[in-house]
């Protein structure tokens, strides 16, 4: 042990240095945010709650029920049911995501050839029952309106710039079954 | 043997094989699209190109014969480039609508494009054909077609139908039925399995699931006795479609319409969900417990009052081995009687009896491949491609390979159309034709050349002496010269085969037909292998082996059903005698006089509607079991879906009733049951050849009052109780009909599509007429299994197992 080190030990130099920093921070603005009072905006590409993209032209979902998202999904939490419609077109009857099982990998978004499914920036959806996390087609479309809407397309272009958006939905070949009754 | 080198590997091959054949045999991959194992090489897609050293051009492996010393390369930069170009050209006008195409994920074009293709094409064009979505079972989208021609060739070369063709030229070529009409064919769906892309699809499966959502299980077809392997594709516990997979099962991947589309009978609306007991004259839903106690009490009461011999049971040719075994165990051990039988009594039993009397054998399983390579193949008054479709295909194949296919048949069946020689006889005279052949053979002295002694020759030659060519010509309506010519051909052939069917639904053949055929073959020195008589339903053969027949003098089906009062209680398992058996009026009377009718079925059948108690059974695919096909091969049928409602397997129902009756059958689990069944030995008898005289006589002859002969049978899409429950099959055909010849239609003023009255000596029914030259003058053909038409009110049963044609009269419904 050198003299210098001994000196530092006796007079708590290290500790005083630390205390000095603490003291100085007392007079600066805090960096922690006081969530939930203070919210931080999600950045582009944040992987939050799922939504189905609403096609502005038809007002319906863009999804054609190709099942690629369900195929790629590592936790197998997407369920799609299709059938033949009255004009022999493909009809997507149900599109459901069991959100509690999702690992937010966004593979589904990447796989979709039509840019029809997204993860929105919305992340505050804690709830009390499992059912609330079972997203049906209606809920997913609502999510789009609530959390993405028009800005969703911008998000698509900027963040994903997916090849998928260059594909148009095959004409007259995929529709959504309207809720009966 | 030749030797060639493929990709540096020295390979031995047989002469006549193509390069692709050799490569496939040695697990060397060469891409291909238009090639199909069953068809002649076509060489249309150019994807199978290979490099052969010494050849400047690239060669199509599927149509280039392998040669001695050939050096072949299957994967070189040149080839990759060529394949890329081929694919690029195929994709020029392909719609690329994979996201909504049902083939995506199992599409050969998709896979190959992924493997070899360019990621972007340089050319672009568009086709705008109208997809056909109106056909009943086959969905056609010509825009996706790559014109490989496999469907067309399968339909014509392999199926012998020719319902579709490539029409138009160039870019506008497309697959279509003649004149672009809606497809109306036999709906076998073979073209769907053959199509490498999504241009043809099974309608019931359209847009139902993506390929990767499916899980597959192999099972055995519940319909006919060929016992094809079906590949069931399920999604979330529901069967969505059935495929044949190339090379799998006895059928090697071929399927008929019943097997492919008929599976949905298990989802039929009439499926029973709970037990029913008749209370105050009406069937009421009850719990299993109540039903079991009810059955037990009533059975005990009958036993006490009338003894075991007053109780009988009818098993099912469609239920599994295990179910049938349990039924006979129950009847023999718990009830203590031998009164048990199945519908085989009306057909297959006679065939076996006929063979026992002649060849001395007790069983004669068919061989699917038997017609192949025979010089002459004779099909006797049997519509094999309808009743046993995949067996029927072998006859077409035999003909394609050079056999002489003789079809002796009044109806213009598919085999008649594709035959080498069609002898259009009068209905029911096939036996006379064979007797004529026997007489002819004896006169020609053919048998003498064979140097063998068969007992009974003198009696036989006396009995057939009257069947001279003149007489046969008169009876059958054939030309005498034609008869002699065909007889010569048959008798002088190197190898030969006679095939015929006997079924509960058919009335133009009987035991005498089988005996006549056996006599003829023995005379010509042919063993029982030359006589191919398939069992009718999926487990007819198995039920027979399990002892579902009187073995110790018990009452047989004729006594039980056609002698009102012979029984007090009847247990019917999986059979609907009122619809599928002849002379329904009499059966109804028998049922009315019963004190107790127990019906155990998968649906509320006509018979069940008359029952005192109805027990719901789990159906095919809802339980484990075994079927034995007409070849005598036991094949397991797995459980792949859960049972409908409260239904349970038949054998469990019987086990439970036995328990309630305080009887231990000693079998609680399926495995124990299987072990017990494994011990049942089949007795196939000893060959001992005997010629037996055959009497030929039509039981009912047409006369002035009843001038027309009515023949009953099965048709391609329907074969009885199951098929009419299938939505898909009923989509093709759900209405009962009778075929009337144009001549008779004119004579009796019958219009196509109009209702007519058919009257026989038994009764009369009303039914829709279809005027068709498939039947000759003086003949009606009626499929029997449409419950609402009740044609079997007109027919008679023949307890001696004889042909029992019905003479009828027709008139328009006034
Ligand atoms: S984010 Fe990933 S885990 Fe979640 S639904 Fe999409 S693919 Fe599935
Ligand atoms: S990948 Fe896109 S279009 Fe396909 S099913 Fe999923 S969301 Fe719909
Ligand atoms: S379903 Fe069968 S008969 Fe009809 S077109 Fe296809 S292959 Fe031909
Ligand atoms: S429909 Fe299918 S099988 Fe037929 S020619 Fe077109 S691609 Fe080939
Ligand atoms: S041939 Fe017979 S066993 Fe084969 S699929 Fe057709 S009905 Fe089923
Ligand atoms: S497979 Fe050889 S040309 Fe098509």
Structure summarized in a few sentences:
The complex is a heterodimer of chains A (181) and B (814). With 181 residues, chain A is α+β, with helices and mostly antiparallel strands. Helix content of chain A is 29%, strand content 15%.
Plain-language structure description:
- The complex is a heterodimer of chains A (181) and B (814).
- Chain A has 181 residues and is an alpha+beta fold.
- Chain A is 29% helix and 15% strand.
- Chain A contains six helices and six strands, in the order H-H-E-H-E-E-H-E-E-H-H-E.
- In chain A, strands 2, 3, 5 and 6 form a four-stranded mixed beta sheet that branches. Chain A has a two-stranded antiparallel sheet with strand order 1-4.
- Chain B has five domains: 2-75, Ubiquitin-like (UB roll); 126-267, Alpha-Beta Plaits (2-Layer Sandwich), CATH 3.30.70.20; 276-343 and 538-665, Rossmann fold (3-Layer(aba) Sandwich), CATH 3.40.50.740; 348-532, Dimethylsulfoxide Reductase, domain 2, CATH 3.40.228.10; 708-812, Barwin-like endoglucanases, CATH 2.40.40.20.
- In chain B, strand 29 and strand 30 (764-771) form a beta hairpin.
- The longest helix of chain B has 19 residues, at 288-306.
- Bound molecules: iron/sulfur cluster (5 copies) and FE2/S2 (inorganic) cluster (FES).
Lay out the secondary structure.
The complex is a heterodimer of chains A (181) and B (814).
Chain A: H1 3-10, H2 13-25, E1 50-52, H3 68-72, E2 78-84, E3 90-98, H4 107-111, E4 117-119, E5 134-135, H5 137-148, H6 151-160, E6 174-176
Parallel strand pairs in A: 3-6
Antiparallel strand pairs in A: 1-4, 2-3, 3-5
Chain B: E1 2-6, E2 9-13, H1 19-25, E3 49-52, E4 59-60, E5 71-73, H2 77-90, H3 108-115, E6 138-140, H4 150-158, E7 164-167, E8 174-177, H5 190-194, E9 200-202, E10 215-220, E11 229-235, E12 238-243, H6 257-261, E13 276-279, E14 282-285, H7 288-306, E15 311-314, H8 321-335, E16 340-341, H9 348-358, E17 376-380, H10 384-387, H11 389-400, E18 404-408, H12 414-417, E19 421-423, H13 430-444, H14 446-449, H15 457-464, H16 469-476, H17 480-492, E20 496-499, H18 511-523, E21 531-532, H19 540-545, H20 557-562, E22 569-573, H21 577-580, H22 584-593, E23 596-601, H23 606-609, E24 613-616, E25 625-628, E26 634-637, H24 650-660, H25 670-678, E27 708-713, H26 727-732, E28 737-740, H27 742-748, E29 755-760, E30 764-771, E31 779-783, E32 806-812
Parallel strand pairs in B: 1-5, 15-16, 15-22, 17-18, 17-20, 18-19, 20-21, 22-23, 23-24, 27-31, 28-30
Antiparallel strand pairs in B: 1-2, 3-4, 3-5, 6-9, 7-8, 10-11, 11-12, 13-14, 13-24, 25-26, 27-32, 28-31, 29-30, 29-32
């Amino acid at each position: 042990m050198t003299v210098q080190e001994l000196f530092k030990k006796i007079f708590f130099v290290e500790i005083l240095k630390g205390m000095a920093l603490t003291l100085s921070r007392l007079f600066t603005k805090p960096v922690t945010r006081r969530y939930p009072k203070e919210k931080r905006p999600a950045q582009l590409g944040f992987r939050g709650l799922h939504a189905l993209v609403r096609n502005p032209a038809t007002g319906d979902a863009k999804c054609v029920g190709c099942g690629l998202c369900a195929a790629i999904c590592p936790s197998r939490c997407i369920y799609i049911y299709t059938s033949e419609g009255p004009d022999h077109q493909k009809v997507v009857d149900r599109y459901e995501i069991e959100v509690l099982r999702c690992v937010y990998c966004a593979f589904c978004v990447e796989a979709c050839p039509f840019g029809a499914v997204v993860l929105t920036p919305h992340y505050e959806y804690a709830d009390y029952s499992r059912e609330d996390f079972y997203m049906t087609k209606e809920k997913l479309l609502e999510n789009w309106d609530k959390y993405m809407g028009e800005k969703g397309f911008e998000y698509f272009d900027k963040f994903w710039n997916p090849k998928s958006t260059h594909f148009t939905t095959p004409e007259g070949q995929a529709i959504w079954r309207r809720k009966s009754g | 043997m030749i030797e060639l080198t493929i990709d540096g590997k020295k390979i031995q091959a047989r002469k006549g094989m193509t390069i692709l054949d050799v490569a496939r045999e040695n697990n060397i991959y060469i891409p291909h699209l238009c090639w199909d194992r069953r068809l002649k090489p076509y060489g249309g897609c150019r994807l199978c190109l290979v490099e052969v050293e010494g050849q400047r051009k690239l060669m199509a492996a599927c149509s280039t014969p392998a040669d001695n010393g050939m050096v072949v390369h299957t994967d070189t930069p040149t080839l990759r480039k060529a394949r890329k170009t081929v694919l690029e050209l195929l994709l020029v006008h392909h719609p690329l609508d994979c996201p909504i195409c049902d083939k995506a994920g199992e599409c050969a074009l998709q896979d190959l494009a992924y493997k070899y293709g360019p990621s972007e094409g340089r050319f672009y064009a568009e086709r705008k054909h109208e997809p056909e979505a109106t056909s009943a079972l086959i969905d056609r989208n010509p825009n996706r077609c790559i014109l490989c021609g496999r469907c067309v060739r399968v339909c014509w070369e392999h199926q012998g139908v020719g319902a579709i063709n490539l029409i138009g030229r160039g870019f506008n070529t497309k697959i279509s039925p003649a004149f672009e009409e809606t497809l109306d064919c036999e709906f076998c769906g073979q073209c769907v399995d053959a199509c490498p892309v999504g241009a043809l699809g099974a309608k019931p499966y359209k847009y139902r699931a993506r390929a990767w959502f499916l899980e597959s299980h192999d099972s055995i077809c519940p319909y006919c006795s060929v016992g094809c392997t079906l590949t069931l594709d399920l999604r979330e516990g529901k069967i969505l479609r059935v495929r044949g997979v190339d090379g799998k099962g006895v059928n090697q991947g071929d399927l008929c319409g019943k097997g492919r589309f008929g599976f949905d009978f298990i989802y039929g609306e009439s499926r029973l969900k709970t037990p029913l007991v008749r209370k105050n004259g009406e069937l009421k839903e009850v719990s299993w417990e109540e039903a079991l106690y009810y059955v037990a009490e009533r059975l005990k009461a009958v036993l006490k009052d009338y003894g075991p011999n007053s109780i009988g049971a009818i098993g099912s040719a469609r239920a599994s081995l295990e179910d049938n075994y349990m039924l006979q165990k129950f009847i023999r051990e718990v009830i203590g009687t031998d009164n048990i039988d199945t519908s085989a009594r009306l057909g297959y039993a006679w065939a076996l009896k006929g063979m026992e009397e002649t060849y001395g054998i007790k069983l004669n399983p068919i061989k699917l491949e038997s017609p192949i390579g025979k010089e002459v193949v004779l099909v006797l008054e049997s519509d094999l491609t309808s009743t046993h479709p995949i067996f029927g295909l072998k006859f077409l194949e035999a003909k394609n390979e050079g056999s002489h296919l003789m079809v002796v048949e009044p109806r213009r069946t598919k085999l008649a159309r594709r035959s080498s020689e069609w002898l259009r006889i009068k209905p029911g005279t096939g036996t006379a034709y064979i007797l004529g052949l026997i007489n002819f053979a004896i006169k020609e002295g053919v048998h003498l050349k064979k140097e063998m002694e068969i007992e009974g020759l003198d009696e036989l030659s006396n009995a057939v002496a009257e069947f001279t060519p003149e007489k046969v010509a008169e009876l059958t309506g054939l030309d005498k010269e034609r008869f002699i010519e065909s007889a010569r051909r048959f008798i002088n052939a190197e190898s030969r085969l006679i095939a015929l069917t006997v079924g509960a639904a058919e009335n133009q053949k009987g035991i005498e037909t089988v005996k006549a055929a056996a006599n003829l073959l023995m005379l010509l020195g042919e063993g029982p292998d030359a006589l191919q008589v398939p069992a009718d339903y999926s487990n007819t053969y198995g039920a027979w082996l399990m002892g579902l027949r009187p073995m110790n003098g018990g009452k047989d089906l004729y006594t039980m059903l056609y002698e009102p009062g012979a029984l007090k209680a009847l247990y019917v398992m999986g059979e609907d005698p009122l619809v599928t058996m002849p002379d329904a009026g009499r059966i109804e009377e028998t049922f009315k006089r019963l004190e107790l009718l127990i019906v155990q079925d998968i649906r509320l059948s006509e018979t069940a509607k008359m029952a005192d108690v109805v027990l719901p059974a789990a159906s095919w695919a809802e339980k484990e079991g075994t079927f034995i096909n007409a070849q005598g091969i036991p094949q397991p049928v797995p459980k792949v879906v859960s049972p409908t409602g409260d239904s349970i397997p038949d054998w469990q129902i019987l086990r439970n009733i036995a328990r309630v009756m305080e009887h231990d059958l000693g079998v609680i689990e399926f495995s124990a049951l299987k072990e017990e069944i494994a011990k049942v030995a089949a007795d196939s008898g000893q060959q001992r050849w005997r010629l037996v005289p055959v009497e030929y006589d039509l039981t009912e002859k047409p006369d002035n009052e009843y001038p027309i002969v009515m023949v009953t049978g099965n048709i391609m899409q329907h074969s009885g109780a199951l098929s009419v429950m299938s939505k898909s099959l009923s989509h093709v055909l759900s209405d009962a009909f009778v075929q009337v010849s144009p001549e008779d239609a004119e004579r009796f003023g019958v219009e196509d599509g109009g209702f007519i009255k058919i009257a026989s000596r038994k009764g009369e029914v009303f039914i829709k007429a279809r005027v068709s030259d498939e039947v000759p003058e003086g003949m009606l053909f009626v499929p029997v299994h449409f419950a609402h038409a009740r044609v079997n009110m007109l027919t008679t049963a023949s307890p001696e197992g004889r042909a029992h044609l019905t003479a009828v009269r027709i008139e328009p419904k006034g």
